[in-house]
Amino acid sequence: MLSFSLRSGSSGNSTYVGTSSARLLVDCGMSGRQLASALKDYDIDPSDIDAILLTHEHVDHCSGVGVVMRRYNLPLFLTEKTYLAVQSSLGNIDESRVHFIEPGAPFGVRDTEILPFSTPHDAVDTVGFRVYDRTGDVGVCTDLGYFSRDVRTALRGCRFVFLESNYDVDMLETGPYPRYLKQRIAGRKGHLSNDDAGKAAVWLVRYGTEALSLSHLSENNNHPVRAMMTVREAFHVNGIRVGRDIILQASPRYSCSPSFESASPQIGHKSASVQIERESESLKVDNKIMLPSIERESASAQIGCEGVSYQGECEGGSLQSENEQLQGEAGSVNTGSGNRLKQTSFLSPESLDMMIGRNDSNLIGL
Ligand SMILES: [Zn+2]
Ligand SMILES: [Zn+2]
User: Which residues surround ligand 2, an ion (CB under 5 A)?
Assistant: First the structure.
């Protein structure tokens, strides 16, 4: 498995997820030329991509979809409602290459299983994706007003997660946006704040997530250092050690993030040719975060969260009560990841800088 963000934020979003059998692009909020240039960083040819998965119709996610479909003859997977909303902006595409999906209904690309799940957002039918792979699943979850039950159910035990951390509450409140826009961003169908991303991140780690990339950071209402510090603080308060229990980074706005990578005997990516041979061996690979290869069964066994039940949730309930519930859920389970990462992962110097916020100029291009 190899995964990285190509662009992240309101100026464009795209995430690459490569499994043992498929190369996937989640969203394409960038031009064809930008896509080719970004993938070149990882020695990936855009024509080798197997499918584009679209989360929703907002332009920062779909601006390049039509062009890239035509240029590389790629299939597109999206919900029917999203297709109707985005159709006119795609231009002249081959409709036989369009495949409808439904939230909650897994589908396949080659031998890779993918679960689309609903996220609460102000688009017609927004989804996130969990991509399954024997070496660890990847979740892409941005554009959500709150960390809903659907999202939690879909991402539980997901090894790598790109999670929205859109705005700092104080920066949004004191910033220049008009009141209605502030309310929209902070609303139940808006975006996830750093504070709520911190709570969500704690929950995810408790259920087995080992690497997080904070994504879709607002240019005007956030700063990568603020986002990282807020989430780190949430980890600290809950006894989760960054760099040991969890790898944490922020997805850059205009460039590729370091990749999350785990070895698999079947991986065919050129850039994934260096693999961990033994669990005790660290590898120095620039701009990559290497994790040990695991089988899905053993990963879920390590999570150790089965039997923990949700205590019911009203979609219309208050944010406060849901956050409290989130904390309660997270606090009631054991951390399964322990120090597995300490022994086996390699963090590039750039990644370490990101973790401690020393190199923020490289993160978002502010
Ligand atoms: Zn959106
Ligand atoms: Zn967006």
Answer: 60, 143
